[in-house]
Write a structure and sequence with these properties.
Blueprint (H helix, E strand, L loop, with lengths): L27 H8 L3 H12 L6 E11 L2 E11 L3 E11 L7 E11 L3 E12 L5 E22 L7 E16 L4 H18 L3
Antiparallel strand pairs: 1-2, 2-3, 3-4, 5-6, 6-7
């Protein structure tokens, strides 16, 4: 269903508990099962739109939120099949009528690569104690031409006349650091950003 196994594919018995580092896994299903709490739901949603196309690259994110209401987990996968960006994310929502008191809000969004008008990547580069290069973090931003927010810009006159409208395009942001993901996930996000930079139509 997903990309074909490579010689370096980890065996199934090496998959750790949810939240384990996903960067050693080249296949989306292996990485998702190592990282996500709800891997089967994520893979089913992504498979429903990717069909038989091959996964060219992906990045995964997971945030644990601790609050007075308890612990909730926000999960995200961004997958590229060469012509589209498939975005899946889930969030646990409180629901007093559901067993356990929560439900999982799972959503998928499909974006043609031609709709992406800007790919930006910023890498934080440092040195280790021996003077070798260390990538300490990476930030990737994808911006589209689709309007995400349109706000009025007043003239400043007392009558409140609107002079223009400020347009903010829809954007997707991904980041990894040594504290959030570690060097393996930093390298994988850099590869993902470079892949999108090559594939987005000029």
């Amino acid at each position: 269903m997903f990309s074909k196994a490579t010689k370096s594919r980890p065996t199934a018995n090496r998959l750790g508990p949810a939240g384990s580092d996903w960067s050693p896994y080249d296949r989306l299903d292996d990485a998702a099962h190592a990282y996500f709490l709800h891997a089967d739901i994520a893979l089913e949603a992504i498979a429903g739109v990717i069909g038989r196309r091959r996964v060219r690259g992906f990045t995964l994110e997971r945030v644990v939120d601790l609050s007075e209401a308890g612990t909730s987990v926000w999960q995200e996968a961004a997958v590229c099949d060469g012509r589209r960006l498939i975005l899946w994310h889930s969030e646990e929502l409180a629901d007093d009528d559901a067993p356990g008191g929560t439900v999982l809000d799972s959503s998928v969004q499909v974006l043609p690569l031609g709709a992406i008008g800007h790919v930006g990547m910023r890498t934080l580069v440092g040195r280790d104690e021996q003077g070798g290069r260390v990538d300490r973090g990476v930030f990737v931003v994808l911006a589209t031409a689709m309007p995400h927010e349109l706000s009025a810009v007043p003239t400043g006159d007392a009558d409140g006349t609107v002079a223009a409208a400020r347009f903010r395009p829809e954007a997707f942001r991904f980041s990894k650091s040594l504290d959030d993901g570690g060097p393996g996930q930093i390298a994988r996000l850099i590869d993902f950003g470079r892949l999108l930079g090559r594939l987005v139509p000029g």
